[in-house]
Amino acid sequence: MEKVISCFRWRPEAVTRLICFPWAGGGSIHYARWGNVLNSSVEVFAVKLPGRESRAREPFFDNMQQIVDEVISALLPLLKEKPFALFGHSFGALTSFAVAEDLKKVHNLEPIHMFLSGASAPHSETRLKAPKRSELSDGEFLRWLASVGGTPPELLANPDVVRLFLPALKADLRVVENYRCSEPDGPVLSCPVTCFDGKEDVPHDLQAWRNVTSGDFTVRMFDGSHFYLKDSGNEKILLDFITKTLEAAEMHYL
């Protein structure tokens, strides 16, 4: 399991696990350190995909089902053990939903809450009509990346750094751009879903996520653009919200 998951603080006594999925090209460290911040009732698992960090020598995944199969294979025994919630930003929002959908349909397991950030729902027209960024030339791609924000300009200007992270980013974008999900006939999930987004980000069809669950649905907007959650003030608000939400959910399991 350690191959697929980063966990900075193992908490066997925790009531809930929060499983976090990286943004495109991202690693697990940003989320893993949340384990040092959230209170002792929550154990944080950060998903680590091939082609980066300790898995740098492994080939990237080609499609969403490979991610789903690996994550579920690694985590299934633990997911049966105690309540869990899912968090994903951007590409991670879509991978976390794909995992949740498979867990529900195949294993009849469901998170107690889904936190989805910075992404349109997989079946929304907004996402399906979005341009395929992975097909851009490296120069065009870097210009687009600079416009999104969240990556320090000095890193984008460093060819060695670009050579390191560009392949992972493009590989993840190819996965998500080829991920097809038709609008559900009815809600796939019954757990509450919360969507987060930056007010200055390109508009996402957050409301379309309402269709994936019969549970409560809320939207919370933050100051900032696509990587609003990298801002320390926003991160604190976000983690406080997640903590309070999980504490309320935990009351049903104590």
UniProtKB/TrEMBL annotation:
It is an enzyme of class 3 (hydrolase). Pfam families: Thioesterase. The keyword Transcription does not apply. Residues 17-243 form the Thioesterase domain. Its EC number is 3.1.2.14. Keywords: Fatty acid biosynthesis, Fatty acid metabolism, Hydrolase, Lipid biosynthesis, Lipid metabolism. InterPro entries: AB_hydrolase_fold, TEII, Thioesterase. The keyword Lipid metabolism applies. SUPFAM superfamilies: alpha/beta-Hydrolases. Belongs to the thioesterase family. This is S-acyl fatty acid synthase thioesterase, medium chain. It comes from Poecilia formosa (Amazon molly).
